[in-house]
Specification:
By secondary structure, the protein is mainly alpha-helical. The protein contains five helices and no strands. The longest helix is centred in the last third of the chain and has 30 residues.
């Protein structure tokens, strides 16, 4: 359960970052051909679809508000890991950041982006806490559950330009 409580909001964040940060940046730059490869689409979208299906369609896995700190702590651990590896990705030893918003040379911009990412990750955790209550409020049933799952997935997943 604790692993799911961490993985679900993190997978939503991954999909949202691709949709709202990486994809628009790629459209302005070198194009989105790499993002449209099947294995990349699977890596960045299928995980959140499976998490939403688990919560809304299959077992109704509950995410507890008392464990709210788990996902942001995991996110911070990922940031520190990526920073510790920045000089190890390239053979030359030059700094290479996994994503532009993790680049510490951007100064204040990077700090603001990381702060916002932690806030959004916490918001996504809260969404997973509230999904069960939302489904009960809407009356349940397969059509309602499927609509909520597809609706949320549509907000964070992107498959084409």
């Amino acid at each position: 359960m604790i692993l799911f409580e961490t993985a679900a909001p993190v997978s939503m964040l991954v999909s949202a970052v691709v949709r709202y940060a990486l994809w628009p940046k790629a459209l302005k730059g070198n194009g989105t051909d790499n993002l449209k490869k099947v294995h990349i689409l699977i890596q960045h979208n299928v995980n959140i679809i499976m998490c939403l299906a688990e919560v809304g369609l299959l077992g109704g896995m509950k995410v507890r508000f008392t464990d709210l700190a788990l996902a942001p702590l995991f996110g911070l651990a990922y940031i520190f890991f990526s920073w510790s590896m920045k000089n190890k990705w390239l053979e030359s030893g030059e700094p290479q950041f996994l994503y532009f918003f993790l680049d510490t040379t951007l100064g204040k911009t990077s700090s603001i982006a990381l702060g916002l990412l932690v806030i959004v990750l916490t918001l996504f955790y809260a969404i997973f806490v509230l999904i069960d209550d939302l489904l009960l409020f809407l009356g349940g049933g397969l059509v309602i559950h499927l609509t909520v799952v597809v609706g949320i997935a549509t907000l964070v997943c992107r498959f084409r330009d």
